[in-house]
Amino acid sequence: xxxxxxxxxxxxxxxxxxxxxxxxxxxxxxxxxxxxxxxxxxxxxxxxxxxxxxxxxxxxxxxxxxxxxxxxxxxxxxxxxxxxxxxxxxxxxxxxxxxxxxxxxxxxxxxxxxxxxxxxxxxxxxxxxxxxxxxxxxxxxxxxxxxxxxxxxxxxxxxxxxxxxxxxxxxxxxxxxxxxxxxxxxxxxxxxxxxxxxxxxxxxxxxxxxxxxxxxxxxxxxxxxxxxxxxxxxxxxxxxxxxxxxxxxxxxxxxxxxxxxxxxxxxxxxxxxxxxxxxxxxxxxxxxxxxxxxxxxxxxxxxxxxxxxxxxxxxx
Length: 316
Prior knowledge:
Shape: globular
Keywords: NAD, Oxidoreductase
Oligomer: single chain
Protein name: D-2-hydroxyacid dehydrogenase
Number of helices: 13
Distance between the termini: 10 Å
Pfam family, one: 2-Hacid_dh
Strand order of the largest sheet: 7-6-10-11-12-13
Largest sheet: 6 strands, parallel
Domain D-isomer specific 2-hydroxyacid dehydrogenase NAD-binding: 107-293
Family: Belongs to the D-isomer specific 2-hydroxyacid dehydrogenase family.
Helix content: 25-40%
């Protein structure tokens, strides 16, 4: 059987699939050619990440398709229910990238509170001529310890983020309409651990209380954070989105950054991805990454091997 890993797959995933008797194709096929490629090469399984979309047109055009797999959590680039109605298995790897995404959240938080993203832009330009000026410009940093982190969506990634926040000595609050409360276990290198219970509260109360806000939700029909929500937040709040583009009104965000209502934002995902707006890309108060939340070697190894195990189980 053949597997098309159109957005790539780790070496460990390839080896696991080949050991299970599958042929793995890692050729990058253009979106409009995916259906033709699948049919011409008798592909049984299509694996994607966030780039390739598997919609109704591909599903209808590929009657031999047995499995559609998503390397990661969100499934908004796959017509899941329609695929299942056609007898196609749809799989993903919801737990494999949680720690990687959570660490990126804190990368953006540390960037924001210490102006690292902006100083890294300006030190090469002015470090030798305006050292004292830059030192003064970036002198008013903020500690994360003792501050309140509001987590919108306390699923696997939200919980991984909570663990890191607790380890830093932050207060953690959460809002999740599907998870009323959750026990979060923080494990240490020597086998010791502590467990705390986080009880979900309303979004409105979270927005009012949090010093920093991080989003961990799937794609939405509308904004979770817009002008109204920004207005009730604390002055100087920091906002991070490593979840999905389109959950924050970027026009309202820029306005809030310009006014000082929001002190900084950290964005890994964008409304107009893969072509983010220039007002976002050039803003000095935004820490930027190009949708790399799950892009660590460790996460990709876990994703690849987990996908392989699921495929082998389903088709063996």
